Every structure is written in C-alpha cells, then in structure tokens.
TrEMBL record:
Keyword Cytoplasm: no
Domain Glycosyl transferase family: 184-340
Record domain Glycosyltransferase subfamily 4-like N-terminal: where: 16-171
Name of the protein in question: Alpha-1,3-rhamnosyl/mannosyltransferase
InterPro entries referenced in this protein's UniProt entry, alphabetically: Glyco_trans_1, Glyco_trans_4-like_N
Any one GO MF annotation of this record: glycosyltransferase activity
Keyword Transferase: yes
Entry keyword set: Glycosyltransferase, Transferase
Transmembrane segments: none
Tree of life domain: Bacteria
Species classification: Bacteria, Bacillati, Actinomycetota, Actinomycetes, Micrococcales
GO biological process: lipopolysaccharide biosynthetic process
Length: 362
C-alpha cells in the first residue's frame, strides 16, 4: 500500500483558505477511500486541533507553524527527512511550500503566485523575498504541482519556470455553511465581506466607496476575518462611516452561516487573487455576489455575479446600490449562482488529486 505523507506544518488554525483546502480535500479523500495510506505531519499547534478530518495517523512533528523561522526551516529542510523517517512513498505539500530536497517524489499545491506578481500588495514586505526563495527551492524539487486556476497556472510557468506538462489544474470547491433558509434582512440591509486583511483584498476600497451610495438606501457593510487590532478601523475613521461599517473578527462557521442567511449580498473587491472560496460558498448558499472584474474571478463566478472595477470607487458604489435597489437582479444572481456552484465539488477535487498522486508515483 503506497504511503503518502502530508505536510501540515502551516496548519495552525489561523491560516484561512489553505487550511480549508487541506481539511476538505482530505476529509473527502477519506470518504472516497483509495489504495493509499496517509500520514499527516502536523505542526505542534495543528496537532492540538480537531484531527478527525484526516484519513490516517497524524504525527506531531514538534515544529511550530506560528514561529516563522522554525516553520521555514521545517518546510525546507526537515519535512522531507520526517517523511522519509515515516517511510513515505510520496510527499504532498498542500500549502504553497515544500522541501528543498526529498528522497521521494513531491507534489506541491501552489494556490497563487501573489508574492511574485503583486509583491507591493503583501502585508509583510520583509517576508516577500524569503517566501519567493522558498517557493523557488520547493519548485525545483517538486515532481508535480497542483494549482487552482488558469491564472495561477500561467503565473507558475512565468515566474518559476515550472514545466507546463507537470502542472495539474484542479479548481477548488466550496463547503456548505451551517445555515437555514435564506432570509435577507430587508429592514437593515447589509453587504457582507469576509477574508484576511492583506492589502490585495481591497477592503479599504469597499469602505471608501460606501459614502458614494445614497444615504437613503445605503447598506451597512460587515467585514469579518480580522485577527487582533483591525487595520481597517483607520479607514472607517477616515471616511466617517462608523455607523455604517461593522468590523468583525474571525467567526465560527455557525456565526458566518447566520450572516450568509441574512446578508443582502457578498462583496469581494480584491485587486488580485488565486481563487475565491467565499464567493463560491456564497453562490452555493444563494447569496448574490458582487465581485471584482478580474480574470480569476471570472473563472470562479462566470456570469453569475455583479462585476465592478476594483480600482473605481464609483463602480464599487454602483454595485452596492444595485444590491439594495434591484431585488429582481439579486434574485437572478442567486439562482445563477446556485447553478454555477454545482460545477465545483470536493469529490472532483479529491478524485483528481488522487489521480495526480498515481501519475506521479508511476
């Protein structure tokens, strides 16, 4: 039985989308069953979390995924040796980075190339060059790469020089949130936005566009996903939108599901991205989506979204105005979104990932 080691050093409970990818992928792989045996190589933080989703044994590597130095050393130089110690036939690294050297074939899931294509948008500039260095070393060692969009596939070829015939494109899938029937709050309409505070997400543009919406119909904006002191408070102060903007921290699935039930629409004003799980999950829930007109979002949403120019506050404001003033358009988007979301499934992601493992071992 071939043994696959899974690099989970970055899985700490605080990383958002890439953790969702690893968790839902391996939950589905466990449901499907396969000829593989899996061993998870966990960070010391991740090992303390719920591990029931993983279809095999989880090993505490003792490496901190929150200590950037220890994590980086672990990714580049330790994870390959740990995988060898556990007699792995293949190593899967689901979060961008992999070892500089390994004795077994390695598959890296490279979600995006934002550190290369948009270095000015990274929230930790001092970390940009080290991450690029790590991604370059991991790519040199990788047998194959999995990526999640055509945009990312092209950028992997451009920036890493990775052979096109060894890149496998497997779009993500959404996860249904625990929620009841959609019942938008018509008395107090609000636009929901959810995600980390990295500059490329452009939450500041969403806030700055809000004063351009006629106050008589202006919706509230609820932005979730912050950790600690929220940098968007300064933007709210700048435009005086205290009564209109609610900044929320990281929410449970149940809390987020309640917001999906009652929101008027979801907004994603990003300048750049590798995919958009929030938009896909909103479409699954029948929540209309307002989204930046960028190529990767067209891959996700197709015609089932209201698009706007993320560089234009007027364009963003127009989309929010449509959300609160045109219920027929929102109902149309909700129906189209549900249909569009049916094209994405974790079963498909898991099946194609297992196929990639087989091809790599062959």
């Amino acid at each position: 039985m071939p043994r696959v080691a899974v690099d989970l050093l970055s899985y700490t409970g605080t990383k958002g989308g890439m953790e969702t990818y690893a968790r839902e992928l391996y939950r589905e792989i466990g449901r499907l069953g396969s000829e593989f045996e899996f061993v998870g190589l966990a960070s010391k933080e991740g090992y303390q979390l719920d591990r029931s989703w993983f279809p095999g044994n989880m090993i505490d590597t003792g490496i901190s995924g929150e200590n950037r130095f220890r994590w980086a050393v672990g990714e580049l130089w330790s994870i390959g040796r740990i995988a060898k110690r556990h007699r792995a036939d293949l190593l899967h690294c689901p979060a961008l980075l992999g070892p500089a050297r390994s004795s077994m074939p390695t598959v890296i899931s490279m979600h995006d190339m934002l550190y290369w294509s948009q270095p000015q948008m990274m929230s930790t500039p001092a970390f940009t060059e080290p991450v690029k260095f790590m991604e370059r070393l991991g790519a040199r060692n990788a047998s194959r790469m999995i990526t999640i969009s055509e945009v990312s596939r092209r950028e992997i070829i451009t920036y890493l020089g990775f052979p096109a015939d060894r890149i496998v494109l497997i779009p993500l899938a959404g996860t249904a949130l625990p929620m009841g029937e959609r019942r938008p709050d018509k008395e107090h309409p609000f636009i929901l936005a959810t995600g980390n505070r990295r500059p490329h997400k452009n939450w500041a543009g969403l806030i700055r566009a809000l004063p351009l919406v006629d106050e008589a119909i202006r919706p509230r904006v609820v932005i979730t996903g912050s950790h600690g002191e929220d940098p968007l408070r300064a933007v709210v102060d700048e435009v005086g939108m205290h009564d209109w903007v609610e900044l929320r921290s990281w929410l449970t699935s149940e809390e987020l599901g309640h917001l999906y039930e009652t929101a008027t629409a979801l907004a994603m004003p990003s300048f750049h991205d590798g995919f958009s799980l929030p938009a896909l999950e909103a479409m699954m829930a029948g929540l209309p989506v307002l989204i930046s007109d960028i190529p990767v979002y067209r891959e996700v949403a197709g015609d089932a979204a209201e698009y706007f120019d993320p560089h234009s506050l007027e364009s963003i404001a127009t989309a929010m105005t449509t959300a609160v003033s045109d219920p027929a358009r929102m109902a149309e988007l909700a129906d189209q979104g549900r249909e569009r979301a049916k094209q994405f499934s974790w079963e498909r992601v898991a099946t194609r990932t297992l196929e990639t493992f087989r091809t790599t071992l062959a």
